[in-house]
Design a protein that fits this description.
The protein is mostly helical. It folds into three domains: 124 residues, Winged helix-like DNA-binding domain superfamily/Winged helix DNA-binding domain (Arc Repressor Mutant, subunit A); 53 residues, no CATH class; 95 residues, no CATH class. Helix content is 53%, strand content 10%. The chain is built from 15 helices and five strands. It has a three-stranded antiparallel β-sheet with strand order 3-5-4. A two-stranded antiparallel ribbon has the order 1-2. Strand 4 and strand 5 form a beta hairpin. The longest helix has 16 residues.
């Protein structure tokens, strides 16, 4: 197939900067369980700074080593710096950073430092990604997703990275080296599956159902999130929220409404952090016949957060 002019022109552009693996949108979520686009953007920037820079020999052009992009042992960043860079509010950044930290994707360290001019600064934030967790959410793909259709699984990926030293040429995602390893694993898994107890197979649907969050779990999450972000949950709010559930509203939608309210507040709508604002959102869903999370996602979620 002939390559189009557009593809050729795009191929000539030297793209630089942050990389956002699409897998992240499946793993990095808001408290409402939706894709955390702010957290993804912040993490991509953090990872950019931690990607090593090649050092090449001027005479031969060969890679002779690597260096970091920042001067200290960890990357120093503030909420204000992130907010200014991406156009988010400081509160949006603070919450997203907290979610990334709670997910184990980054660590935050607050230090007291003294600048070159002798100025003493307290609680300066340093951020560092957790490499194993980043690898986990980036590489949790099927074999088809890991390897380009034009390559075979028997082709070592490091064949195409001839400028990297051995310790960095190993593919980040494992199990993409040979067909032998894949077929062996598949055979073993099939054998184990065939030898499984028939009773266990019959119980599998029950196990899956048991692992799914229950309505009470989502309601408890709503209460926890409300009290963390808004304040003490009054008996009136509790009663009205429970009434929505009794009317058929999916408890997960309470979390979504709260998340939307917080986002609206961050963009300057001061009345959004009130239960009345959230009630208005939920009632609009009732009027539109949106009673479940799936219905919300189909009608509004995709438009708001995009597809994943």
């Amino acid at each position: 197939m002939r390559m189009s002019n557009t593809v050729q022109q795009i191929g000539q552009i030297d793209f630089q900067g942050n990389i956002v693996p699409m897998n992240w949108f499946k793993h990095i979520k808001t408290d409402a369980g939706l894709p955390d686009s702010i957290g993804v953007m912040l993490l991509s920037d953090i990872i950019y700074w931690y990607r090593p820079v090649e050092v090449r020999d001027e005479a031969t052009g060969k890679v002779v080593g690597y260096r970091t992009k920042f001067k200290e042992d960890k990357l120093q960043r503030s909420y204000d710096q992130f907010a200014e860079q991406f156009g988010f509010s400081k509160n949006q950044v603070r919450r997203a950073i907290k979610r990334l930290e709670e997910a184990g994707l980054i660590t935050i360290e607050l230090r007291d430092i003294v600048t070159k001019t002798g100025l003493r600064l307290n609680n300066v934030m340093y951020v560092e990604p957790v490499a194993e967790k980043i690898k986990e959410i980036t590489c949790s793909k099927t074999e088809e997703e890991k390897v380009d259709n034009n390559l075979t699984l028997s082709t070592p990926m490091d064949k195409f990275v001839d400028t990297l030293p051995t310790n960095l040429s190993t593919p980040l995602c494992k199990n993409v080296d040979t067909n032998t390893e894949t077929s062996t694993e598949t055979t073993t898994e099939s054998k184990l599956a065939s030898e499984a107890d028939p009773v266990d197979k019959l119980n599998e649907p029950e196990k899956q159902i048991a692992d799914e969050p229950k309505e009470d779990d989502y309601f408890s999450q709503f209460i926890d999130l409300y009290q963390k972000e808004i304040g003490l949950l009054s008996p009136t709010v509790y009663s009205e929220a429970e009434s929505f559930i009794n009317q058929g509203i999916d408890p997960q939608l309470l979390i979504v409404a709260l998340q939307i309210a917080l986002e609206a507040y961050d963009t300057g709508k001061n009345t959004a952090r009130r239960w009345a604002y959230m009630k208005g959102i939920i009632r609009s869903w009732q009027t539109a016949g949106i009673l479940t999370f799936d219905a919300y996602w189909e009608r509004e979620g995709v438009q708001r957060y995009g597809t994943v």
